[in-house]
Amino acid sequence: DLDQTRISTYLASNQCDFLMNVPEESHRGGEWERQIRTIRSVLNAVLAQAKGRLDDTSLRTFFYEAMSIVNSRPLTTDTINDPKSVEPLTPNNLLTMKNSVPLPPPGKFVCEDLYARKRWRRVQYLSEQFWSRWRKEYLVNISLRQQWHMPRRNVHVGDVVIVKEDNIPRYEWKL
C-alpha cells in the first residue's frame, strides 16, 4: 500500500499537488474523464467508417496511432516565448522520456484508402480522420473548460494560444 500522507507531504514540500482519483469515484476526475469521453466518441465515429475492414493487427496499429496523437498534445506553455527554450511538455515526453515528436507518415491519405488492399494506408487514413476529429473536439473542450472555471481577460498580443488550422500535419500544434 502507498503511504498517501507521506507522498502528499513530500510533494507539497516540492510545490506539487497530489490528487488521488479512486477508481470507484471516477466522477471526481472531471477534466480527464471528459477527455476519455471525447476520445471514445471520436474512436466510435472513426471505427464506424471502417466496420469490418480492420483485422486485429490493423486495429492495434490504429489504437497505437490514436494513443500517440492524444499524447502529443502540449501540457505546458510556460517557456514558449523564449527562443532558446525546449518544446512544450507533452504526455509523450513523460511516457517515453524522449523529446522527439513523431513525424506523420509522408503522403496524403484519402477516403479511397479505406478500401485499399494495403492495410497500412487504411490505418493511416483512419489515423488522419481521428486526428482531425479529435483535435477539433479537444480544442472546443479546453476553451470551454477555461471559461467555466475562472474569469479571464481577452487575448492580448504576446499571449500564448493554440491556433486552429485545419490543414496541418498530424502531431503538430501551432502555438
Task: Tell me what the structure shows.
- With 175 residues, this protein is mostly helical.
- It has a domain at 31-149.
- Helices cover 47% and strands 0% of the residues.
- The protein is globular.
Shape from CA axes? Answer: globular
Low-pLDDT residue intervals, each spanning 5 or more residues: none
The biggest sheet, with number of strands, parallel, antiparallel or mixed sense and barrel status, is:
none
**Strand content of the residues, in percent?**
under 5%
Radius of gyration: 19 Å
**Can you count the helices?**
5
pLDDT averaged over residues: 78
Structural class estimated from helices and strands: mainly alpha
Number of strands: 0
SSE pattern, N- to C-terminal: HHHHH
Report how far apart the termini are. Answer: 41 Å
Helix content: 40-55%
GO molecular function: nucleic acid binding
Pfam family, one: DUF5641
InterPro entries: DUF5641 (IPR040676), RNaseH_sf (IPR036397)
Protein name: DUF5641 domain-containing protein
Task: Produce a short descriptive summary.
The chain has 175 residues and is mostly helical.
Task: Name the features.
175 residues; mainly alpha; 47% helix; globular; DUF5641; nucleic acid binding; DUF5641 domain-containing protein
Topology:
Blueprint: H1 4-13, H2 30-49, H3 56-70, H4 91-96, H5 119-149
